[in-house]
## 1
Amino acid sequence: MRKFVVNLCCLLTFLLLLVLKVYAADSMNIDWSRPNFVSSTFPISNYDQSKPESAFGAVYARNISVRVIGSNVVAVNAYKIQTVQADPGAGPFRDVSQTHAVDFDRNGYSDIVAVTYGGMLVVKRNTMPNIGTLDFQDVTSYVIGNSSYSYIAGDGTMVVDDFNNDGKLDLFLYNAKYQAAFINDVITPKPTIQDKGKNIAITRINKDSKFLTNWTVSAMASYDFDKDGYKDIIYADMSGRIWFWKNDPTRGNSRFFDTSKITLLFSDPDIGTTASNGGAVLDIGDLNGDGVPDIVAGNTDKRGIFIYYGELVNNEIKYNPTKKVAIVNLDGDLGTEASVDITIPNSKSPKYLPSFGPTIVKVTDLDRDGKPDIFVGTDAWRQGKNFGGSIYLFKGTSRDTTGKPKFTSLELVKGSYSSENKPPYDFDAGAIGDLDNDGIPDFVAADGNHSGNFYKVITKTVQQYVTEPGILLSDYLTNLVNFKLPDGTITRGIPRSVLQYYFVYAIEVEVSFTNDGSGKFEIRYSKGAIKDPTIIDPKNFPLMLDPNKIDPNTKEWLPMDPKPVPFNGSFKARVVLSTPSPDPQILIVLYPDNQNTAPHLKSVVYRIWTKPATVEIKGFRWLKSTW
């Protein structure tokens, strides 16, 4: 028996050496001019304004901002933050029920896509680059209707994203009459009934009487939940149920109209109401940096704001409402995840307010420090006090040992009673975007159904760079490259249902910079998923190889040196992995020369070479897909 075990070990060792020899031979024979998959050239133009790093295919950033310099969208080290300031503005949001920030004219100043209570779609241009002060001017408007529906009301909730992967923004609206509208290419005017018939689909969707948002709130967020390359919708109905609303690309403009593809994720009465009116509010983001989306939610009729951390269970995203944690408790006092900083005058608990009825919840990283921040705007009517218009910022200030953030509660706008004649005194719509092109997200909240006025929360910066290294962490490369589906459609990301055939074994990253700043950069890699990017020290990850830096003895490529910026042309870094991986990630690290100048990353392209997975991962269940 012992002799058999020894022989078996020798055989396994021989096979392992043979496999390693095969991979070594492969690395010498890679045709670097013929990758299996290539990404689009980043940055993309229609990125999520609340997560600006997504413009460069990144899922995490620290000390990095995204701005427009000249005609280029660039990633650059962040400016130093001076203060966060809330100022009122007058007039341009009358009748507006929903807003979304997008830089449609690509000048670095976020504009607004708005839906009105009367059923109009309005595109509002940010006037700051023209007149020097923040205001919004209508540039496009059309009725949300078609040959079957003359119009539908614009209350309820909406979400904006590129849902059909054509590079243009689309809009999905679900109103308080169970009516759903999908608008293809929402920015482009639609002056004729033919234009509307081609681009606007409307239907009635009613899973049950409580599958509804019977108020005006932010109750939807977009996320590719099933990893098929198409953005889906996460929706909170008024009863406190959270739904996965699948995007079915085979149905064109009716992609969200199949009720059989709306799946319950979980239910929690603490974010629901039994009243005839009201609505739950939510936003999503990876708050603890584990690569799984988390949900922040509340309800207009209750004071609580809760975090539901997502977990991967058999490769499916699950939420357990019994494990939720509170930023604000149901009684309005701060929960376990938030606290008051007594050294900050406006750090307060909202418990002292007459009411605290959230209608807007938005997650972003306000100061680009790698920790999430959460804006909350409130309503004046749902809690019987006629008091509202409060804006609170729950600023991420630290993390516990598991990576979960802790927040400091900051009151930016106290709010007021309706009788005080201090409009706006409640908020219907809110959006995150870079309103002043300093690379730092700002927040705008509007009182659409009364005064039409708004508050702009501007993050003031000084024109000096944070001199600590800036880090951009890419999404898994298999989520970034373009993939051709069987029907010929090109989608971003290799679907999880076929990923086992396309594990990554070689990578090339090509970057270019503008001549606007100076400093150095590095490109590093992680063979597998980084579980907690919040504790990243770049030096713990290997440098990619420089094809122009060759060992004179072995003739092998050597790790790249920190490269100075600016330089002419582009730079390519490469690496061959020892074994194929489904989820490698890239770190681009930017080092400013000093506080007055920093590298301006202009473009990134990712290329990968793939092979089928050669091992069975115990307990790993591949997602099924019908394409």
Note: Residues 11-25, 616-627 have pLDDT under 50 and may be disordered.
## 2
Amino acid sequence: MAQEGEEVAVEQNLALEQFFAGADLLIHDAQYTQEEYSSRINWGHTSIEYAIGAANRAGVKQLALFHHDPDRTDVQLDEFAQEYCQSGKYGETEIFLAREGMIIDL
């Protein structure tokens, strides 16, 4: 998905949200924070916050955030997990960070 602020994105994003509405699992790009994203528009990635909002709007049950910025450390990713993966903090969707080798049971 493209970020809301990108010109062509609004209609495309609505169509995508309709496509994954009610999904058991959505695996979504989350390369940047919203603050970082503002200087990276049109780079082809989205923010963590946008992915969470899209999943909640679409009634997705589980959201796996992946494609983390390669410059992030494991410590930073652990901090993101503490912030963004708290049950109920960002709506009904269960949020987790995808990790190499992770197995997800549906």
Note: The chain has one domain: 9-97.
## 3
Amino acid sequence: DGHNSHTTYQFCNFAEKHKIIILCLPPHTTHRLQPCDVAAFGPLSSAWKKLVNELTMRGESVRKNNFIKHYSYARAKALTAETIKAAFRKTGIHPLDPN
């Protein structure tokens, strides 16, 4: 997001030392450059909330030892190939929409 706290001297030094290339996205471009923010993470959030509610209704809870199992289930439900493709279509990245 371009905030100066994300590009401190220590951060840049670490990146250079570890041969990490830093890419900064222009502000106000999420709708075009971040398809997962636009159309994938919303369904994931909904699937996660639904699953947690269902678990709660059954008297179960999400803990460290079962988090990955439950999160993986919600992720598989939400982040389907069609959801990901739709996200890229919605942003115009693929198929390419120059407008």
Note: Residues 30-91 form one domain.
## 4
Amino acid sequence: MRLCRPYYLLTLLPISIFDSCIMTLIEKYFPNLNDLQKQRFAQLQDLYTLWNSRINVISRKDIDELECHHVLHSLGITRMINFKPGTSILDFGTGGGFPGIPLAILFPECRFTLVDSTGKKVRVAGEVASELGLTNVVTIHARGEEIKSRYEFVVSRAVTNLPDLVKFVKHLIAKESKNALPNGLVCLKGGDVQAEIRTFRKSVIVEDLYPVFEEEFFKTKKVIYLPL
């Protein structure tokens, strides 16, 4: 297990100390992070290890692979889009905060709403966001159909099949666009997605995360965009 320091000490240490403890894969693929972003990414392993020991949001055997399987995977959204400042994003079915929290660190000038129907998972996401000082994150314990606000983008990771996901979120998309892509859904998927995208073949865009991310884990991983 890779623990940099006891998590309760993290906020007491100067930002420069975190250079040796930053997640190496994140630094490899995102070399232009500022000091605050480095600090926040550096805290994730310890924070999630602590909270996962209390509330199981990540499988016990997978917690040691947090950087690759959860944090970097979440940042695979950037393979499709880099959000402009001021963009509003809903993380639908966030679980313990993925992909929303890593994206909120990377895009501090965007607004992220993390929603999940399981209260204990949303609690973990909220506590982690609070510990990190992510003022651009709001967490909501609710079902998707209960959300009334509108967002420029909905992001998700392994929530459900694409046709059902579209049904759940299409009413949540705002009309006015300001990003390089029109407003819509950006989701992370694994395996063969051909059956899922068949209905949307004329408008869907699918990008492989491998070999942009070189690790074996990403060989079957994809990011999918669908304008809504």
Note: Residues 19-227 form a domain with the Rossmann fold fold (CATH 3.40.50.150).
